[in-house]
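Usage

Read records sequentially. Each one opens with the input sequence:
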Amino acid sequence: MATEIRVPTLGESVTEATVATWFKKPGDAVAVDEMLCELETDKVTVEVPSPAAGTLGEIIAAEGETVGVDALLATLAEGDGAGAAEAPAKSETPTAAASGGSQSVDVMVPTLGESVTEATVSSWFKKTGDSVTQDEMLCELETDKVSVEVPAPASGILGEILAAEGATVEAGGKLAVISSGNGAVAPSEPGGPDVAASKAPDSAAAGKGRDVEDAPSAKKMMAEKGLSSDQVTGTGRDGRVMKEDVQKALTSPTPPAAAPAPAAPRGPVAAEDAGREERVKMTRLRQTIARRLKDAQNTAAMLTTYNEVDMSATMALRKEYKELFEKKHGVKLGFMSFFTKACAHALKEVPEVNAEIDGTDVVYKNFVHMGIAVGTPNGLVVPVVRNADQMSFAEIEKKINELGARGRDGKLSMAEMQGGTFTISNGGVYGSLMSSPILNPPQSGILGMHKIQERPMVVNGEIVIRPMMYLALSYDHRIVDGKGAVTFLVRVKEALEDPRRLLMDL
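and closes with the structure output:
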């Protein structure tokens, strides 16, 4: 039976891609989910996995060709006949069918998301020799931003685990081998998978020693910017230079170093204290948080302006309608929907706070994708409520609840944390009274919410007790002037102190 391999969905507003690399050639045996080729769009690189095990037939779209969404890339011959036909010529491939009715199936690292090329194996839920069923979770991988669970591609016995806990693996790499079928695992190559694995560095080294064709878009950009391939560190297959590698080389103040700069040495620690310390390696998520926050401080001209808001009117409105709201919409009415609506309203009047800098251009967004900072056991993540300016209070509350729960469970996808145009961070849930939030690049603004605290205020010449909250807007002064930042914060304050303004668009 022949299976068609087609171009997958490439992403929002992306309609075509260039075939960058074929990892297999006609006649090669392939396993299910094994990477067949790599497509390159204007923004990202997309790997195309095999939908089934079999033999790669005709390649319809060669390297360098431009293809549209759902276009035919190649054909795949499925079934035992296809695998058997290739077995004599491909005796070194451990994924081909083995003797005795058993078959070894590779457990591969799945596609990790846009611009994510590697992950760390955080946990194995199974051990060598355990029985597994198809789609049962085998292990968990941790990337820079999210956790990814790897299901079993087939039922059988978990054979060798090739990537232990703590190991770093690349997208498309092999994690383990499952022996499926009636017989025992019988590697088709003498010496077993260890020998095959030991050959990988040699083949990779051989790839480095030969000429490697760089991605077409990378060659075009290097020609435009006057760079040569030896000035760019390639991260693609066999050291191939990709478009994002050229972009990184252009934005780096110095050429990429072979190794990271050594960290500042620790101060001296007394001998009696050293035994009471505990050293724990930072998770990849925490490392990414640290790097991005420091990059924001180093890149943006960051400034913070403050104001305070009387929450009486918003609290009274919420109290009056919260039971009816929950009864009708099935979700509680919180403060985040009020702040989201107020910010979306203010961003229309001060669009530069919703914009970003791209080189010497300012990119204004005619939409609001609101990032909502969520604290998780592994660190801070910022899922995005897309088109928040077009959503109702109920839709916003439902989406925030859904994304918050997924964030705390480590189930957020890369797509759910990308594309934000503005961010709200609520430190008040932890008791913070005042803080200066740090920008979430490439965004130009972030609003910090804080604890609601009753304070004496002067209203119409009288001292009254009011529930007050400090607001902080951190912004990029390169694009947002002080007048725009203050205006934005005042509009948020006005909307919260009189929520009817949101209905009247005032």
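Summary fields computed downstream for this record:
- The chain is about 25% helix and 30% strand.
- Residues 80-100, 183-210, 255-260 have pLDDT under 50 and may be disordered.
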